[in-house]
Prior knowledge:
The complex is a heterodimer of chains A (115) and B (114). Chain A has 115 residues and is mainly beta. Helices cover 0% and strands 49% of the residues of chain A. Chain A has strands spanning 5-7, 10-13, 19-24, 31-37, 44-50, 53-57, 65-68, 75-79, 88-95, 105-106, 110-114. In chain A, strand 5 (44-50) and strand 6 (53-57) form a beta hairpin. Chain A is globular. Chain A starts with a strand and ends with a strand. Chain B has strands spanning 4-5, 10-14, 19-21, 24-25, 31-38, 45-50, 56-58, 64-68, 73-78, 87-95, 102-104, 108-113. Helices cover 0% and strands 51% of the residues of chain B. In chain B, a hairpin with a 6-residue loop joins strand 10 and strand 11 (102-104). The mean pLDDT of chain B is 93. The radius of gyration of chain B is 14 Å and the shape is globular. Classes of the chains: A mainly beta (115), B mainly beta (114). At the A-B interface, strand 4, strand 5 and strand 10 of A face strand 5, strand 6, strand 10 and strand 11 of B.
Amino acid sequence: xxxxxxxxxxxxxxxxxxxxFRCDPISEHNRLYWYRQTLGQGPEFxxxxxxxxxxxxxxxxxxxxxxxxxxxxxSTLEIQRTEQxxxxxxxxxxxxxxxxxxxxFFGPGTRLTVL
Amino acid sequence: xxxxxxxxxxxILSEAASLELGCNYSYGGTVNLFWYVQYPGQxxxxxxxxxxxxxxVKGIKGFEAEFIKSKFSFNxxxxxxxxxxxxxxxCAVLLRGGGNKLTFGTGTQLKVEL
Lengths: 115, 114
């Protein structure tokens, strides 16, 4: 499968614990995005990378959230001191990055449940 | 604030009925427009997109959408739905020059009954 992959697919944690999610984009896609989706809502933008540079962050991304893409390939999203309000589906997407190709390809998501 | 509105949250149709899902956005600049679909148990997939040119765009599986700039709308249509079209449909907007983030509507859950 050459699509966007995410790991784990499901994560259950207790409030206050730290969690880390991984995203592997489509090969050679230099743009990578993180979104969060809660029940009954569409995905909401969190942050975006072009290669290893984090170019934009949403105000939704509090200081407990950090994302990295150290070598411009896979990315990690870490949430520290999780809260029940962090329960959501975390989606990763990638795109080729050429100006005329803004189509984003989505992964299956990581469903986080904070108890 | 910039936003995307999908007014139909749940739609139930019989097979062969025609479909139209509304999408309106509130951006003042040049936009790229998308419809994504999420079938049960699957991830978001692109249905169709509008970047420029002919405002009537055709996508996969017989879907089409029309961009009406004066109405800030990008409604999705299909002349005859099938049971397999049961899914959640999301309209999304990307504001050119406003970063690369997609802003999504809240989605429309479509159920097609046999």
